[in-house]
Amino acid sequence: MRKIRLKRKAHTHGKRHAGKAFAVLMAWMGTSSWAHADQWYTGSLVSPSGTTRVGVLNFEPYYSYSQPVGYFDARGGSRPVTHPMQRMFSNSTLWKYGILPDFSVQVHTIVDYGWKHDTGHSHGPKTGDVPVDLIYRFVRPDPKRYIPAFNLFVGMIFPTGDYRKLGDTQDGVGSGAYVFRFAITEQSTYTLPGNHELRLRVWNWFRRAVTSAKLVDTTSYGTAHGFRGRGQPGMSGETGFSLEYALSQKWVLAMDLARDWSDGSRMHGHDASGQYVKKVGSAGSDWQIAPAFEYNWNARWGVIVGSAFYFAGHNKSIQVSPQFAINAMF
Length: 330
Hints:
It comes from Acetobacter estunensis. Keywords: Signal. Pfam families: Phenol_MetA_deg. The structure is a single chain. It is globular, with a radius of gyration of 23 Å. It is mostly beta strands. The chain starts with a helix and ends with a strand. The protein is built from one helix and 19 strands. Strand 17 and strand 18 (301-314) form a beta hairpin. It folds into two domains: 1-30; 37-329, Autotransporter beta-domain (Lipocalin, Beta Barrel), CATH 2.40.128.130.
């Protein structure tokens, strides 16, 4: 019994020290007033946001680095990474403008630079395909009645990225096809004990190509010099939710959990020898979690820092993707 009491005493003493350390951390991060209805957010790393205010331009550039650490096979088992590894730096910027109280337009620009050790690299930063979305808020939030905001996204991905006649396979950042996409999103905010705000987002994306791409020589579909044919990306989508917990008006803890899925791309045509080729890529899926910290200087400027981790799936690379973004409103 004496040994048990000593263990309990040591455990209690450790808990007190941990509690003091946590209190000091919270005091340091909570230099402003505790969270309240006028909470400041940047938004989490993965979740899409809804409409913005009339006449306001929301500018949000993301910067990320993708490092493979393995891959999921067709049965969902994890395998060690193979060399050479595909690496990539990416800048993904959201431009959103409020036209009406419940209607906004959003443009998403992407610039990538990829490489594999000793096998090839992008010929400079490459601009990818550009999604343009119309966002309509069809349900306005009413926190007193626990009614969340609902938004509908309808848009098109325009084939602006290089995808054929590539000098190197690393230059293939586009699909060459117009891709229709839509999403339904939900956002709600709750006040927890201590006057801390908790924001929940839930979303579901769907994408489908509406045209095919003309393939010539080396392409992003895996063809080589001399190939002539057509290709089309497979359907894809994403479902997820995010939580943002306010430590103070300026500091917020964020977390995303999402599942991505995609059908295999299709291509057919004739190679350099004149032989007919027809291929359908493997379908794949993955699960990712993305924890992050948000810091907001005021209601218009903030920054978020975190990383996405892929922890389950099949026929997909296992990635670690540290990233940060700046959120600004003008």
